[in-house]
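no rush on this but wanted to send it before i forget. theres a chain ive been looking at and ive put its sequence and its fold in token form underneath. i want to understand how the tokens follow from the sequence so walk me through it. thanks a lot i owe you, the record is right below:
>
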Amino acid sequence: MADFIEGKRPVIEALRTGVPIKSILMADNVQRDGLIEDILRKAKRVGATVEMVPRKVLDSKSDRGSHQGVMAKAAPFPYVGIGDVIDAAGTSAAEHDGRALVVILDHITDAGNLGAVSRSAEAVGACGIVIPNKRSAHVEASTYKSSAGAISHVPVAQVSNLVQAMGRLKDEGFWIAGATEHASDLIWNANLKGKIALVMGNEQEGISRLVMEHCDFLVKLPIEGEVASLNVAQASTACMYEWLRQNQ
């Protein structure tokens, strides 16, 4: 997540959607309008400290020069390890007749898409999300917004190697399903019962060749219209709910 969120409305939105705010820097000459009063109320409610500083301090920290006299410092997102996701899956399987879902995102680049995927993952009871730690979207303020706060309730593991993470999941009894428009089988004809790791690809490129080669099987959603594919967040939601349907 970016260290600072700039501007009155972005700071209000961050406080409203549950972004973990450590502190708020406010220019000592800022005009106390309705937005500033709202920030002060929300900051007090969540226990975030407000520090009055010279405007030049904000200028020195601003990336875009659009702070409007207010910047919020966000706490780093608490990523977990792949082992934590596996442990959560074990608990889920024990409590839900052996079913567990892990979502693997193969270098998606939009932080809002990450949030939208996590919202659906939380809704269907997924055990966690796995993302690469490089060349991939990470959790930032827009992720909290698009997830409606759900990102705080889904373990997110950052890993250095997706193929190795997939191998660990296979060792724990997971079947790896890759969602791609190049698959020959529709997802509702595939067996998604039990422990499934669902791989979703990059917004433009889809699943990479190496990751696809390590999937156990490939599935696709039916497309009846003229558009070739769905947005990754929409496709993820449809696939996750098919997993849930088969396991209920």
